[in-house]
Hints:
Elements: H1 3-21, H2 25-37, H3 42-64, H4 70-90, H5 96-116, H6 126-143, H7 147-157, H8 161-186, H9 191-217, H10 220-242
Helix pairs in contact: 1-2, 1-9, 2-3, 3-8, 3-9, 4-6, 4-8, 5-7, 5-10, 6-7, 7-10
Amino acid sequence: MNPDLLAILILAVSHFVGGIAAFGSSLLALPFLLLLYGTGELSRILFVIVLAGMLQSLYLVLQNWKHCDIKTCALLLVGAACGIPIGMALVDVLPERGILLLLGMLTFLGGVMNLLKRGEGSSLPWPLSLLVALISGLIHGAFASGGTILVAYTQRLLPDRDRFRATLALFWTLLNAGFVIALFFRSEADAALLQQTGIACAVVLGVSFSANAVARNMNRVIFQRMISGLLMLSGFIILMQQV
């Protein structure tokens, strides 16, 4: 199969799943796109999937705005925004493999715990939310992989399906806006990259419409189990990348 057609299929499947869950699109797509194009294209691949993911998140926000928990999103965003530049500054001194192995294990265990959880979520102290977001932002700024631990935490904080999806979508939209600008200048943009990005965004927005419709009609228990399963898969992917 033509590599570009295969890449479109990868983007469609990963963003359909991510559109239902409101996270995970880039994490699912990135390993397969790197196998397809090679690590030499990392900056260009990241630009495409981060921009496409941001547009998907923006679409989900517009479709589910009334469910957004602005207070929770603002708290998480402040913590992550403070952590990202710290992570970027410390990237050369942090033990990458050790941190990502720990992150993978925590993400996997977070999925298991959410799968076994019974009852509704509870209000948690705001300093704890801020600390989790700060740590998540630090890891994300250093290694672009910190979002999963924040997702696991947010599912416990916001067990309601619609609030969880809308709040996470708003968070990713705002957080990734800055990343898109930075990646644009790092990716040596040319006409080919812009064409690939345009096609990717069209595909992602198309599947996002279907994913949002599926999520709205999905049984809430099944949705929570899907999120738990996706967290476990995300943790497994992170661990396998370090083996």
